[in-house]
Amino acid sequence: MKLAPSVLAADLADLKPCLRLLEETACDYVHFDVMDGHFVPNLTYGVPLIKDARKHSSLPFDVHLMVTDPAYYIGQLASLDVQILSFHIEAVRFAPRLIRLIREHGMRPSVALNPQTPLTEIEHILPLVGNVLVMSVDPGFAGQDFIEQVYAKIESLAAFRDEHELVFTIQVDGGVNAGNADELAELGVDIVVAGKAFFSCDDPRGFASRVQSLSR
Question: Labelling 22: which of 16, 32, 56, 185 has CA 20 to 30 A away?
Answer without folding.
Answer: 185
